[in-house]
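pipeline: protein-struct stage 2 | run 1193 | Heparan-sulfate 6-O-sulfotransferase
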Amino acid sequence: RNFYYITILRDPVSRYLSEWRHVQRGATWKASLHVCDGRSPTTEELPSCYTGDDWSGCSLQEFMDCPYNLANNRQVRMLSDLSLVGCYNLSVMPEEQRNKVLLDSAKENLKRMAFFGLTEFQRKTQYLFEKTFNMNFISPFTQYNSTRASSVEIDKQTQQRIEALNFLDMELYDYAKDLFLQRYQYMRQKEHQEARRKRQEQRKILRAKQAHLREQGENSSSTDYIGNVERW
């Protein structure tokens, strides 16, 4: 079978806050096996941020303080090929090298996807999806600016810390936004060129029809004149 891989990226700070609120209400990822190279990580490779059944009620400060929190740079990690860095074994290579490999891998995989969209650009995302797969949604996408993440008020220092914790996601998102807008502009330009081509073809057909009608009219006039001359 042929599969098309697609994804939707989100502003890293909003995404991080949204996940915190989700976890705060009792959500867990216990069913996620995090399988890489045929095995799941050990508890030493991927320690838990909490004890008990879930992490409900955790504060944003507690959420940020856990060094093993998979919310950090989640988009890069989920888009990259973890086998390139030894999966969850952080001792395979230096941290700086590991980060570069993960980011480069995530960028490459994103670029090679058939389609990706951005949560912050719903209408443009819909447009690109429809043009990419030649199909139309029955109703327009809605841009919701009021979300659980947007309802969280944070000071500048907290935002800067979230950005620092998600510095790979921040760089990936900048890359994704640039690539996304390039693809959008390309599709719009292609659409305009196609519309222009169709208009030119229609004008050409119309001119041909008009020329044909004029020719028929001239022939008819000549025939009438010759017939009248013969009668005279």
